[in-house]
Design brief:
- There is one protein chain.
- The protein is an alpha/beta fold and 451 residues long.
- It folds into two domains: 12-28 and 245-448, Enolpyruvate transferase domain (UDP-n-acetylglucosamine1-carboxyvinyl-transferase, Chain), CATH 3.65.10; 30-233, Alpha-beta prism (UDP-n-acetylglucosamine1-carboxyvinyl-transferase, Chain).
- It is built from 13 helices and 24 strands.
- The strands form six sheets. A four-stranded mixed beta sheet has the order 22-23-1-24. Strands 2-15-17-16 form a four-stranded mixed beta sheet. A four-stranded mixed beta sheet has the order 4-5-3-14, covered by helices on one side.
- The longest helix is centred in the first third of the chain and has 13 residues, at 30-42.
- The structure holds shikimate-3-phosphate.
- The site of shikimate-3-phosphate has 10 residues, from helix 6.
């Protein structure tokens, strides 16, 4: 029952380019966009959202909120309104909920449905149907929800939410903001206090937004350094306007392209540098990247800044494993930067990359090898032997339905000696629909392959 991507696979080639220049804004943050729609659906009244990412993943969440009873509209000026139904007010959807390629949408909405006495079927594309859902099925089952999933806890699955949800205290075995958020979402319609304990802190957009909507969240660091996040159930959520900042995971592509492409100077405006999201930028600066953080401010409860980036000669480093959660989606493009650096870059503590939209360690390593780069991989690490700016390129890269693999290798093609082709650029629309247009505006050169 898996759905197919909304556009057919389309290969694309990035060609050696020079002197990327200009100022751009990248699309709204994907994590914050999903949450704005979901919390808007649970607040009573109108939540107005500006800067929402209009990528396929987030549009699937918008459609899901409609199917669960919220009214979701887009205005002519590009802002969105969600008229919510209140905590506990969701209705049973008549049709399966289709999340396309989006693990975040699927897992967060599983938490939402688990706290309501309704039944829903969750479907997605071939990539999403391969991803593990046990990590949310287990805690949500403890809270009283019932799941019928495919072998190995995979989608498609049918979920019946708890009639009388029970609060739990859950120590998450994986460092995952999706797991944390699913449990807190289920905890909203649960009497009492629901607690998630994180050994490694992950992105905190759910906690920030819940507070902004009036929920009571308490944070406590234990003797072992783990963070306990406790939510008091059954709050009345009050709508508040949300300005979605630019996505640091999307900004990563123009930033790395500007560092690697000779003669470049690019400003990326208005991205969130929430400390749980900024690990790539710290790493690139440690590698010698010329990145100036300008105009730091707070917008919509998130720290925001502009980045000025100039071409740089990078050096390989050891990326500490404790930084992984703050840059988990950025390793593929970091591996591209590492290929151009002098010396080896070792990335460890990254086993979670094996269960993203693709196995990102395998996909990145084979793409690098196809372009003349030596890589060593283990179950949870990857070491890239840098070529000090002399990357041959010329490879054909399999993207495995993964938008970030596609964009990473297109960035490589802009700075390599020969063009780099990816087999499918269609998936880029899940997170960064304007990628090719924005990058072309900076001077990047792309060519479609004749079919
Ligand atoms: C996300 C959390 C991360 C990240 C994903 C978005 C979120 O996943 O990779 O792109 O919005 O909560 P995990 O929770 O699996 O680490």
């Amino acid at each position: 029952m898996a759905t197919s991507p909304s556009s057919p696979a389309a290969s694309l080639t990035a060609e050696p380019s020079h002197g990327l220049a200009g100022r751009i804004s990248v699309p709204g943050d994907k994590s914050i966009s999903h949450r704005a729609l979901i919390f808007g659906a649970l607040a009573v009244g109108e939540t107005r959202i500006s800067g929402l990412l209009e990528g396929e993943d987030v549009l699937a969440t918008a459609e899901t909120m409609r199917r669960l009873g919220a009214r979701v509209t887009r205005h002519e000026d590009g802002t969105w309104s969600v008229f919510g139904v209140g905590v506990g007010g969701l209705s049973e959807p008549a049709e399966p909920l289709d999340f396309g390629n989006s693990g975040t949408g699927a897992r967060l909405v599983m938490g939402l449905v688990a706290g309501h006495p309704i039944t829903a079927t969750f479907i997605g594309d071939a990539s999403l149907s391969r991803r593990p859902m046990g990590r949310v099925i287990n805690p949500l089952t403890e809270m009283g929800a019932h799941f019928h999933a495919r072998e190995g806890g995979r989608m498609p699955l049918t979920l019946t939410g708890a009639r009388q949800p029970m609060p739990i205290t859950y120590r998450s075995p994986v460092a995952s903001a999706q797991v944390k958020s699913a449990i807190l979402l289920a905890g909203l319609n649960t009497p009492g206090i629901t607690t998630v304990i994180e050994a490694t802190p992950t992105r905190d957009h759910t906690e920030r937004m819940l507070k902004a909507f009036g929920a009571h969240i308490a944070l406590e660091t234990g003797k072992d350094g783990a963070l306990a996040i406790s939510l008091t159930g059954e709050p009345e959520l009050t709508p508040c306007p949300i300005a979605v900042p630019g996505d640091p995971s999307s900004a990563a592509f123009p930033v790395v392209a500007a560092l690697l492409t000779p003669g470049s100077e690019v400003v990326v405006e208005g991205i969130t540098l929430n400390p749980h999201r900024a690990g790539l930028y710290t790493t690139l600066m440690e590698m010698g990247g010329d990145i100036e953080v300008m105009n730091q401010r707070e917008e919509g409860g998130e720290p925001v800044a502009d980045l000025r980036v100039r071409s740089s000669s990078l050096k390989g480093i050891d990326v500490p494993p404790e930084r992984a959660a703050s840059m988990i989606d950025e390793y593929p493009v970091l591996a591209i930067a590492a290929a151009f650096a002098e010396g080896a870059t070792r990335m460890s503590g990254i086993h979670e990359l094996r269960v993203k939209e693709s196995d990102r360690i395998a996909a990145t390593a084979s793409g690098l090898r196809a372009n003349g780069i030596k890589v060593h991989e283990t179950e949870d690490s990857m070491t890239v032997e840098g070529r000090a700016g002399e990357v041959s390129g010329g490879g054909h890269v399999a993207t495995h339905m993964d938008h970030r693999i596609a964009m990473s290798f297109l960035v490589m093609g802009l700075a390599a000696q020969k063009p780099v082709t990816v087999d499918d650029a269609a998936m880029i629309a899940t997170s960064f629909p304007d990628f090719v247009r924005l990058m072309s505006g900076l001077g990047a050169s792309f060519a479609k392959q004749a079919q």
